[in-house]
Amino acid sequence: MAAVGPHGLLVRAVTGAAPPNDRAFELWAISPGATSPRSLGVIPSDGELKLAMLPPDLRDGTTLANSIEPIGGSPTKQPTGPVVFVGAVKGV
Question: pTM here?
């Protein structure tokens, strides 16, 4: 589940899915017209990521994706592991 409101962006796991023990989920945003994804951060082990300020390019039509990455996030600043979730931002 992802929700945008006056307090920023909240992403919360709605399943019991977890990455392998030596990996983490990382959230990516791909804005319409962008040539590459941008990391919004590693999702903590409790399954909840809060961003107090919305990225300026997060708007209607932005794709959000979760990939499985090394602990601490992708070493390349681009997704390196498999993408396990994709959704689109609506109504921002």
Answer: 0.86
